[in-house]
Every structure is written in C-alpha cells, then in structure tokens.
Please model this.
Amino acid sequence: MGSLSYDPPVTDDPGTQHGPPDGEAHSGDRVAFNHVGLRVSDLARSRRFYENALGFRFWWEFDAPDEASRVLLGLPSLSGLHATYLVRDGLVLELLHVSGGDQRPTRPRTFDDPGLTHLSLAVEDRAGILAKVRQLGGEVLESSDVGAAVMVRDPDGQLIELTSWAWRSKIPPLPA
Model:
C-alpha cells in the first residue's frame, strides 16, 4: 500500500512547537506524551463539559483526512473525522467526532473492561465541580463517593475520578 498523509496543519511560529529545537542533539530514542483521545457523540456538548466543568482550554483542531484516518484507526469506513484538542495541566485531551456514517450507541465503561479505565483530576471546589458536571450533561456516581474521591461520567459515559485537592499533598512528588 502506498504512503498516506496524516499530517496536521503546521505553523512556522516556533512558540507553538513542542520539545527541543530541531537542532538540539538527541540519541534518536526520544518519546514524549502526545494526547489521550476520546470519541465523542456531540462535539459542542463535550467541549462545554470539559471546558466549563473541568477547566480544560481549547488548543487547536483539524479535519483529519478520511482515508488515512480510516487506515490508521483500523475502521472499515470513516468519513468526516474532526479532532479538537483541549489542554489542562499539560494533559492534552483529543476529542474525536465523526460527522459522517453511523454512530454506535455508547455503553458505560467499567473498571473490569481492559484498556483505559478513567481520567483523574484533583479538585478544590468539589461541590461546585459536581454541580457543573450535572448541569453540563455528566453524571455523578453517588454510590462511588468515598469522601476523598468520587467518580463521574462525561456526557458520553467516560469515567472521570475527582479526588480531593488535599489528596495531592499525600502522594509522593513526581520524579525529576
């Protein structure tokens, strides 16, 4: 099979580039966290939820090429894939929305499903965040509330753990 292009739009602005400058020496084994991707059924609703309830900020977006996306994602067909990138505390969240084709119904993920189980955020104003989660189409899983943490679902059912801000003082510092 020939080469398919999957290059997002580029910019000449060096302030928007990631990692060390191209001229910096490296051993050729660089690896950097890029993003976590979530397929969403309603892009506007998901943006409102992640931006207004959880404080993510819009970064950039692009329309991915259909054929290259279909091959990369291993799907039999794909049309109209739009990727929107949000950021929070260095985490990049990619919201993927498909405008063409069938939308499979969402099913609630559980912790015994293999793969990504949840996102986790420490919050200071828990009551305020939980109210926003409810207001913006999410669900608070009241039965999961253990005081120091509670699980919520985004509008498409993705699990998100909300820990207390105090929890951060009880865990070891990140390695340098």
Observations:
- Residues 121 and 162 are 5 Å apart (CA to CA).
- The longest strand covers residues 79-88.
- The mean pLDDT is 86.
